[in-house]
Amino acid sequence: MTGTLVLAGTPIGDVADAPPRLAAELAAADVIAAEDTRRLRRLTQALDVVPAGRIVSYFEGNEAARTPELADALAGGARVLLVTDAGMPSVSDPGYRLVAAAVERGVKVTAVPGPSAVLTALAVSGLPVDRFCFEGFLPRKAGERLSRLREVEGERRTLVYFEAPHRLDDTLAAMTEVFGADRRAAVCRELTKTYEEVKRGGLGELATWAAEGVRGEITVVVEGAPESGPGELDAEELVRRVRIREEAGERRKEAIAAVAADAGLPKREVFDAVVAAKNAAKGTTKGATKDAAKNSGSGLPS
């Protein structure tokens, strides 16, 4: 007989949100794999539970190495309970490798449903909830972050992201650049905790607010792209989208083709807009140079 892997959702803030089954599973498990054993101890104390099983750490740094050990325990008949610091294991937290290993060995995988920052933020955001997609954490490097954002530039579904507080201002600034300053969003901070805050507004407004510094655990919800038919995007917007893709590392030809496909326009139309903008910029530069020369010759300040 093989064992059972139990993925247990833990409170994202208020410990009173712990699902009723969590205490029973903590008490009965043969092995408890915890992202942070110190947080696990605080949780068991709050729930008045004394675990009878072995407790091991299971976090990003040792996940790959420890997975075979836990998979062997499951294959041997153990009931392994997996908990992370907050929310559901394997959702931007350790767990996927162990679930995959258990499935590969034919081990039963079940879950104790619990609080989710993704669904909680989505529900309180005030944005459409009928269709959404979860994008997890964005890359830390600016170029990679822009590249990831442009992949979903035309996504119609509501977008949900996790972000670290010290990177929130950069992320919102990048979102403003790619999605536009007026795209509606909500920054959900410290959900279900004492200082819970939901800041709603346009991305540009939120980026300005975040520049002053934000603390706590962050979930960002962004409105999906508005529906737009062929010809509804003006030349300036087409050029802006091409520029964003180029800055993220795409060649101009590829960027133009992608923007044209997203907008439902012929590639020639986007190409013409880019060329016109380039020529206009050159004309402005030449005009400024001539004016500077005239001012220099007349003794006026340049």
Uncertain regions spanning at least 5 consecutive residues: 298-302
State the strand order across the main sheet.
Answer: 3-2-4-1-5
Main sheet specs: 5 strands, parallel
Query: Any idea what the shape is?
Result: elongated
Query: Helices and strands: which structural class?
Result: alpha/beta
How many strand elements?
A: 10
Q: Helix count, per DSSP? A: 11
Looking at how many chains there are and whether they match, the oligomeric state comes to single chain
The percentage of residues in β strands lies in: 15-25%
Query: What's the SSE pattern?
Result: EHEHEHEHEHEHEHEEHEHHH
Distance between the termini: 85 Å
Report Rg. Answer: 26 Å
Give the overall pLDDT as a whole number.
Answer: 90
Q: What portion of residues is helical? A: 40-55%
Descriptors for this entry?
single chain, alpha/beta, 17% strand, elongated, disordered C terminus
Topology:
Elements: E1 4-8, H1 20-28, E2 31-34, H2 37-46, E3 54-57, H3 63-75, E4 79-83, H4 96-104, E5 108-112, H5 117-124, E6 132-137, H6 142-151, E7 158-163, H7 168-179, E8 184-189, E9 197-202, H8 203-210, E10 218-222, H9 235-247, H10 252-263, H11 267-298
Parallel strand pairs: 1-4, 1-5, 2-3, 2-4, 6-7
Antiparallel strand pairs: 7-10, 8-9, 8-10
Helix pairs in contact: 3-4, 6-7, 7-8, 9-10, 9-11, 10-11
